[in-house]
Design a protein that fits this description.
Blueprint (H helix, E strand, L loop, with lengths): L1 H16 L14 E20 L5 E10 L14 E9 L2 E12 L13 E12 L1 E2 L4 E14 L4 E17 L2 E17 L3 E17 L1
Antiparallel strand pairs: 1-2, 1-3, 1-10, 3-4, 4-5, 5-7, 6-7, 7-8, 8-9, 9-10
């Protein structure tokens, strides 16, 4: 938890200091954007389990995230992640995000020591930036999110849509805010349980560009 907070603070300082070297407008060819995404957010979601043999069930989940998620067993992709994007032509970006997940496992019925679990998130995407004026813009992005956890093994692939608005109070530094939608299309939990997840949230992040 302390490591995640320290990383977010360090990234914020780096993004602010990079503004002096930045171009005036975001979205120019070869602009490089570094960010911290989903640093804060409110979410609601559902996990659907289909074990073999049968007996499927659903679990509703709600929570908020501030660098880390505050539910006992949050959906992993609610966690903050670091991002990298580059504008390959005017307004068109390609990139991705990478995050790390750490969860308490106090309610794990197969493990009484409560050691918890961990894993990673990888989310490639494309986007298109629309400039609204001096401070505001619209940067919708779409792609996929993949995560993998251990103890017990759990993985999921999701379609991810992020129609973010941007607010840049100074050249080279800004904030992301808007809805995030994650729709699972493949996944599993060992042993032999299919998993499908879906989630909707409102998230805030920050970014800087060079």
């Amino acid at each position: 938890m302390k490591l995640i907070c320290s990383g977010l603070l360090a990234a914020s300082a780096l993004l602010v200091s990079s503004g002096a070297l930045a171009q005036d407008k975001l979205g120019q060819p070869m602009d490089v954007v570094l960010g911290v995404e989903r640093a804060f957010g409110f979410y609601t979601g559902e996990s659907s389990y289909d074990p073999d043999p049968g007996g499927d069930w659903d679990v509703d989940r709600q929570g908020f995230a501030l660098g880390w998620a505050h539910t006992q067993q949050p959906l992993p992709y609610w966690a903050a992640r670091f991002s990298f994007d580059i504008f390959v032509i005017d307004s068109l970006s390609v990139g991705g995000a990478l995050g790390f997940v750490s969860q308490d496992n106090d309610d794990d019925r197969d493990d009484d020591d409560g050691d918890g679990r961990g894993g990673f998130i990888f989310a490639p995407r494309v986007g298109y930036f629309i400039d609204f004026g001096e401070y505001f813009g619209f940067w919708p992005r779409g792609g996929f999110t993949f995560y993998d956890l251990d103890d017990p093994d759990q993985s999921q692939g999701l379609l991810t849509l992020e129609p973010y608005f941007t607010f840049a109070p100074r050249d080279g530094f800004g904030f992301l805010f808007g809805p995030v939608i994650d729709l699972g299309f493949t996944g599993e939990v060992d042993p032999d349980t299919e998993l499908r997840e879906k989630s909707f949230g409102i998230a805030i992040g920050m970014f800087g560009w060079l």
